[in-house]
Amino acid sequence: MSQSPIRKAVRYGLIAGLVAASVSAIGMVETFNERDIITGVITLGQLLLFSTPVIAGYLSIRTDHKNQLNTGPALLNGFIAGLMAAVPLIILILLSVAIPNIRDYLVNVSPALIQGLTFGQGPYIGSLIMTAVMAVLGLAGAAFHLLPEKIEKPLFNGIMATLGVGLFSEILINMFRPFPRSIVRALFGTSGIQPLVAAIVFVAAVLLTIWWESRGAKRYASRRESLTEEDKQRNQRIALIAGAVLVLTAPWLLGLYLTEVMDVVGIFIIMGLGLNIVVGFAGLLDLGYVAFFAIGAYMMGLLTSTSELGIAHMSFWAALPISVLTATTAGIILGIPVLRMRGDYLAIVTLAFGEIIRVLAASDLLKGVIGGAQGILKIGKPEILSFTFIQPQHFYYLILAGIVLAWFVSSRLRDARLGRRWMAMREDEDVAEAQGINLVSTKLLAFAIGATFSGLAGAIFASRLSSIFPHSFNLLISINVLCLVIVGGIGSLPGVVLGAFVLVGMPELLREFAEYRLLLYGALLIVTMLVRPEGLWPSQVTKRELHAEGEEAAHEGIQPEDIHPLTG
Question: Which residue segment(s) compose the domain that 454 sits in?
Fold first, then answer.
């Protein structure tokens, strides 16, 4: 039964209003106001608050058949959605008046927040102004959807490009630091971009979209059709060389801080490529993956540390294979008792294994061996001849080498007989065993190779920091790695890389809002799973599996929403 347009507008408006009131009440709007998107024009907090009625107005009339919409009723629905979005905010404002000690219950509802929500005009006049602003923004969201697609798309791309450049202006500021300060000030404020730069980015994005839609896409398609196989191979080689040059020069273009972020992302990519073998290829849900990361790190610490805990005072390169081999052995030891377990039971056992390793590392039982809560200090750095790896730029290349090795091994195994055995086991263990696949060796190899990459990442991690502590190996590391594999696309190697940049790199760039990082992280996961359930860069197998039901229904004339989730 379809929902009436008015009820739809009211529902979307109230949801948007509750989101706006919630982010205001927990302090996000006030905190995010400290970051400019466009200097002197709009802050991140204002964007967070006032984007809600625009989205509500847009969604209240959204349809694939825009030509069937009547302009008057559609604009009215957007207006209503904006009005409804104002209701929770007005309630919050009036509550702050009715309850003088409201901060005893909602500590972040400060006078500064109420001053901002009322535009400095007092609670009653300010509430009227807020209602008018939200209604107009809801109307603007509906009007935006009514625009012809050839106008809507360039405008949308221009707005998103401008907001994106403003949001991540800190990256550009770091890249422009070598330039004269006068140039930097002309382009950027203390945070955000200057209005002139915003206008240039907006116009450039609009013009580029118009050109691409009118001519660029056709030219690109016709040029691709006219290319011979030799031309395609030559273009691929050129693209590969250009990409390699960009990757190799990235540390010197990005600066110290961003290279540090890249190093963190790279370590998670190595772990993600290893867990992708266990979860993505073999279908074994491992929640204790951080244990192998810790084992590789602690073994590197014990073998190379110059403190009293050091047992061999070996070089990094001599200790590296031993650390990796130790993690591999641990993977086999874990795999043996869980060979007959599947699904939730396997997840619980691996989770327990990871927690056992963490607790042992922090306990006084092994304090004399691995340092307990004090950890291991003075861990050795990699050296090549007389050159010592110290700066983040140095470790960037070491981590990059680890990523290339993990990618090469993963891709070769995926296309080999072992990879096909893993995938057969992932689809159905009973059928795979009936076909003659040895489940024992197949599972053990998955655990062992996955643990190998995790141990490699742990060894590099320990040397990079020169000290390790038990709190660096908590359950959240395993969850983060699993999330980046799922969000990127299970079984997809490029998906692991993209997932690491989205789920690890972006939160690192927003570290100034540390209080809300996990909230933003969770919201990003929810949105990704709703919009792209197959992942940001899925493998072809996963994409076919998730879209097969919808395509089959489309052939039969059934709408996807008519398919019952249990009975089909």
Answer: 249-537
